[in-house]
Design goal:
There is one protein chain. The chain is an alpha/beta fold and about 350 residues long. The protein has two domains: about 140 residues, Rossmann fold, CATH 3.40.50; about 180 residues, Dehydroquinate synthase-like - alpha domain (Dehydroquinate synthase-like, alpha domain). The protein has 13 helices and eight strands. Helix 2 links the parallel strand 2 and strand 3. Helix 5 runs parallel beside helix 9, helix 9 runs antiparallel to helix 11 and helix 12 packs across helix 13. The two termini are about 30 Å apart. The structure holds nicotinamide-adenine-dinucleotide. Nicotinamide-adenine-dinucleotide binds next to helix 4, strand 6, helix 5 and helix 9.
Length: about 350
Amino acid sequence: MRAFTYAALPMRVVFGPGSLARLPEEVTAVGLDRVLVLCSPEQADLGERVAGVLGDRCVGVLPGARMHVPVEVARTARDRATELGADGCVVVGGGSAVGLGKAVALEHGLPVVAVPTTYAGSEMTPVWGLTEDGTKRTGRDRRVLPVSVVYDAELTTTLPVGMTVTSGMNAVAHAVEGLYAPDASPVVSLMAAEGARALVDALPRLVAAPTDLEARGDAQYGAWLCGAVLGATTMGLHHKLCHALGGTLDLPHAPTHTVVLPHALAHNAPAAPDAVAALGLGPDPARTLWELAGSLGAPRSLAELGMAAGDVDRIADQVLAAPYANPREVTRDGLVALLRRAHAGEPPA
Ligand code: NAD
């Protein structure tokens, strides 16, 4: 057993179908009684429903969350929270809604209670992001870590099948990189292996029956664990690539993770035999994930997400310019070859 440091993140988790009904007692349990509900415009109805469940503990609903948290959206939410005298925020939705709550927490210190409806995992991390003039800044701050997370699988049955698969793969990517992270530790690795297993098992069941509540619960359980891994470890080549592709070319978050993951894992697998074994996806987990994505109808090429072949060099330059943790050295030639394969939708190698 090698040496390690393990730091648990201080938060509560309430899990189970129908657990939205427990949100009022949860808000009270963490000391809040005037919360602002934040969600995306597409989920405004759900935001109103959550406000109804909260009753007089809710002072307003702001359905303004946007992908990558534009600073002006964050400012509007902060101003609204101040005007309404909110003492915290309840965020309901995917990573974009959670990100907006984190931005308010960063500036105002208002605690966040999260009700996630995708598998992105942001609710389990102290990582915030803000986008200004086309550039996304990210950072880590304990103040943005939600104080409580309510996982209600019933709220995920509306997630379209395509988004279900790509969001699930996004979560698996956290587990994969957590397993070979420089700050990996035994307990976190158990969570990563279990989280990936739960999602790989649940996703085909959800493609066959998107409203299967049992499978939704299993996927959400996997997403919780994978999100906790994301919050506890330092991500490598895969997340670096996705950050560059999303930030520079505005490619969609979860589909980009889905396409890149097999290629990043194929690159790193020779230097991470323990991670390969822990994943339990056979001797070639990169190929297994690539085939799984194909069988579930997920995108497998960056071209179909809108990337031009001519962008490969630009992205490679960006990834090589800033150092990041990774188990295997990344050369320029290796990176360009990886990106070309991912762009064309070829199998990982
Ligand atoms: P998202 O939050 O942008 O949601 C995508 C769309 O799906 C939105 O229109 C949303 O309203 C809709 N949606 C969400 N749940 C739904 C449901 N159950 N039913 C129907 N529609 C639903 O997408 P995402 O992939 O969850 O989050 C991506 C964002 O989160 C990115 O900006 C990414 O950088 C960020 N993120 C941050 C972290 C972190 O630790 N800081 C981690 C993961 C993701």
